[in-house]
Design a protein that fits this description.
Strand content: under 5%
Oligomer: single chain
Helix content: 55-70%
Strand order of the largest sheet: 1-2
Low-confidence stretches: 6-24
Radius of gyration: 21 Å
Mean pLDDT: 78
Number of helices: 12
Largest sheet: 2 strands, antiparallel
Structural class: mainly alpha
Order of helices and strands: HHHHHEHHEHHHHH
């Protein structure tokens, strides 16, 4: 086991995150903040025309997209270099992205349906709902992920917060992902990881993976990993120390 363990969502791992869910397949075309706003516009428009089951038939889909504003926004999504025109390469690449429904995309589409079913009209989910949607077995990880996804600290998570969090885990930089991992380990949120916090994470990691370790073995594992990362022997691990430790074990 390494310091990487403990980030898990089990069979729906944090790697199953990304851009394929919010706003339907158009989310795959997003290349920046302006495109994200356009995606949200499409999402709201589709919700306006969708049935109670959050679905669009062909007729409703045509009604939803059949106006100049919608077509212009779609043009902007395909215009990936924002040059004011669409090259054949951009068009083909965009169509390819829209038609590439891999397993993650299907899972994310299912996830959005589950979110809509559970959240109802409020479009917000609680910690209990969050655990059900993502099927997280270990409560510790559910609580930590929920806390980090709940950006506005409202005590609930919106669909956009959920997608943003998963998108970061799927498409974010290595440094973004490492910072998220560090924040999962930093249980009390004080900016450092102490031995007790590392032990909590490792025990939860073992439970999630259904691995059985004696308390003595767990203590020894915690001690070994902690001493390896705590380079300055301060009694706590900083983000920089965690970063350096993981560079040793790419």
């Amino acid at each position: 086991c390494s310091l990487r363990c403990g980030s898990g969502l089990d069979s729906c791992s944090c790697a199953r995150a990304g851009q394929d869910c919010a706003g339907g397949g158009f989310q795959k075309l997003s290349t920046g903040e302006a495109d994200e706003k356009t995606i949200r516009w499409f999402e709201k428009r589709f919700h306006k025309h969708a049935s109670a089951a959050e679905e669009l038939d062909k007729e409703k889909f045509m009604i939803a997209i059949n106006n100049d504003q919608c077509l212009l926004k779609l043009f902007d999504l395909f215009d990936m270099d924002k040059g004011g025109h669409i090259s054949i390469e951009e068009l083909v690449r965009g169509v390819d992205k829209l038609t590439c429904m891999n397993k993650d995309a299907k899972w994310l589409a299912w996830l959005e349906q589950q979110f809509s079913r559970i959240s109802g009209e409020s479009r917000q989910i609680s910690l209990h709902d969050f655990t059900e949607v993502l099927q997280v077995k270990e409560l510790f990880f559910a609580e930590q992920f929920f806390k980090l996804f709940d950006k506005d600290r409202s005590g609930t998570i919106s669909l956009s917060e959920l997608i943003d969090g998963l998108n970061m885990l799927m498409e974010g930089s290595d440094m973004d992902k490492l910072k998220f991992l560090f924040d999962v380990y930093d249980v009390d949120g004080n900016g450092t990881i102490d031995p007790d916090e590392l032990k909590i994470v490792l025990r939860s990691c073992m439970d999630e993976s259904k691995l059985e370790l004696s308390e003595e073995t767990l203590d020894e594992l915690t001690k070994t990993l902690f001493e390896s990362a705590d380079v300055d022997q301060s009694g706590s691990i900083t983000f920089e120390e965690l970063h350096d430790e993981l560079l040793k074990h790419p």
